[in-house]
From TrEMBL, chain A:
Keywords: Mitochondrion, Ribonucleoprotein, Ribosomal protein, Transit peptide. The lineage of its organism: Eukaryota, Metazoa, Ecdysozoa, Arthropoda, Hexapoda. It comes from Exocentrus adspersus. The keyword Transit peptide applies. It is found in: Mitochondrion. GO terms for molecular function: structural constituent of ribosome. Component of the mitochondrial ribosome large subunit (39S) which comprises a 16S rRNA and about 50 distinct proteins. Pfam families: Ribosomal_L22. This is Large ribosomal subunit protein uL22m. GO terms for cellular component: mitochondrial large ribosomal subunit.
From TrEMBL, chain B:
Residues 177-201 are annotated as: Disordered. This is Large ribosomal subunit protein bL32m. It comes from Exocentrus adspersus. The keyword Metal-binding does not apply. Signal peptide: none annotated. Its main location: mitochondrion. Belongs to the bacterial ribosomal protein bL32 family. It is found in: Mitochondrion. GO terms for biological process: translation. Keywords: Mitochondrion, Ribonucleoprotein, Ribosomal protein, Transit peptide. The keyword Ribosomal protein applies. Component of the mitochondrial large ribosomal subunit (mt-LSU). The mitochondrial ribosome (mitoribosome) is a large ribonucleoprotein complex responsible for the synthesis of proteins inside mitochondria. GO terms for cellular component: mitochondrial large ribosomal subunit. GO terms for molecular function: structural constituent of ribosome.
Length: 209, 201
């Protein structure tokens, strides 16, 4: 099913509107890399899961376990999903799942499911004993497939309607989350003092003995 | 000179009159044929050929092609993206009014009955109502209706159910549904007469 050629109102001028896609199917057998036929999903993020790190020496701090998980082509706008992804950053997983239950957005459901799946994956495949002892280290969104349609306006005009999809990526790390996810964070007075003292001590009198 | 002008005018008048007479004589009360009819003002009222489509129809109405006049400043962009705490904040903050239900363990907002527990009560109520409707159907309710679960009928003597209509539910009583709903408290009233200092005077 697919192509419907929509002819514009012929008022003396004959011009054809762009093709209206109803369902996406592979139309060509040849290697044509059209945007709307491109069904590749992002795979690089999941490759971080397969990376094998060299064994650590006894003195080194233990590297925390992590899980990368994603969900592709969620029917939601990436710009709206970004707000949900930002909420969850730097939170412990259970707290994140709990908060997402009360977020009234369509994307919140998918983000919640991704986090729950990631916990399960960590337990089964990544040798994490307590999945609840994890926090959301990375949470971001990518633009997915865009399906374009046409709508009519008055006076022989047309508008293009875009149906957006998004990919959601999450990385869970084992351990307690840091106090501040973003830098720079608002500092306490004693921290400010420490910083000021450091700056003062860094100064150098040039060409002195 | 004047004489020739006058005679000239007279001659014109005469020719016009003769022309009119000729017409009257020829058509004598009848309408003249199409060829002789004048197509006067009618022609002006005929519909013109349908106006051809021109680009002016779309552009010429003062239709302005919407285009940004100047670059959006970073402040405007950030305000759009994040909002402002004093107006509408677009970025989401975690909610601090979430509580855990001590009965079922699910979360709910503070000041709200736990939805899972409440839904459980709703479902049970609906089941009771369905059982009552199935039993009574369209009869008027003249007696008090009592709903009993499995095995409860035998517990009390039949005299307690006199004057009451019994509806039996074919299932076990839920553990959270107490039989004793009418007794306010099981504690005896206190006989202690000591008063706390804050309650004095």
């Amino acid at each position: 099913m697919a192509l419907i050629n929509v002819q514009a109102v012929t008022l003396g001028l004959k011009h054809y509107c762009p093709v209206l896609l109803i369902q996406l199917q592979k139309l060509h057998s040849s290697s044509v890399n059209l945007a709307w036929n491109n069904f590749r999903t992002p795979s690089r993020f999941l490759k971080y899961n397969e990376k094998v790190y060299p064994p650590q020496s006894s003195g080194e701090e233990p590297r925390p376990a992590f899980v990368c998980h994603q969900r592709t082509n969620i029917k939601y706008s990436p710009w709206k999903m970004w707000y949900v992804a930002c909420l969850v950053r730097g939170m412990p997983v259970d707290e994140a799942i709990r908060q997402l239950k009360f977020v009234e957005k369509k994307g919140a459901k998918d983000v919640r499911e991704v986090l729950e799946e990631a916990k399960e994956l960590a337990r089964k495949e990544h040798n994490v004993e307590f999945p609840s002892n994890m926090w959301v280290a990375e949470s971001f969104v990518g633009k997915g497939q865009v399906i374009k349609g046409i709508r009519r306006h008055a006076r022989a005009r047309h508008g293009i309607v875009e149906y957006f999809h998004c990919h959601y990526f999450a990385r869970l790390e084992e351990g307690k989350p840091p106090k501040h996810y973003y830098l720079p964070y608002p500092k306490q007075p004693h921290e400010q003092l420490e910083e000021w003292l450091e700056e003062m001590r860094k100064r150098k009198i040039y060409d002195s003995l | 000179m004047a004489v020739t002008a006058v005679t000239f005018l007279k001659r014109i008048n005469i020719t016009i009159q003769r022309f009119e007479q000729f017409i009257n004589f020829t058509f004598r009360g009848k309408y003249p044929p199409d060829a002789f009819c004048l197509v006067g003002s009618e022609a002006d009222r005929l519909p013109q050929s349908p106006s051809k489509f021109s680009v002016k129809d779309i552009l010429g109405d003062g239709f302005l092609w919407a285009v940004p006049k100047s670059r959006r400043s970073i402040e405007k962009r950030l305000k759009r993206k994040f909002g402002h705490p004093d107006y509408i904040l677009k970025i989401m903050k975690p909610k601090t009014n979430l509580r855990t239900c001590k009965v079922c363990g699910d979360d709910h907002e503070a000041g709200v009955l736990c939805p899972t527990c409440y839904n459980r009560v709703i479902d049970e109520t609906k089941a009771m109502q369905d059982a009552i409707q199935a039993e009574l159907k369209l009869e008027p309710v003249e007696k008090e209706v009592i709903v009993l679960y499995d095995g409860e009928k035998g517990e009390k003597p039949d005299e307690t159910f006199e004057g009451k209509r019994i509806v039996e539910m074919k299932k076990q009583r839920p553990t959270w549904f107490s039989k004793n709903l009418l007794q306010q408290t099981t504690q005896n009233p206190s006989t202690n007469t000591d008063i706390k200092p804050s309650d004095l005077g």
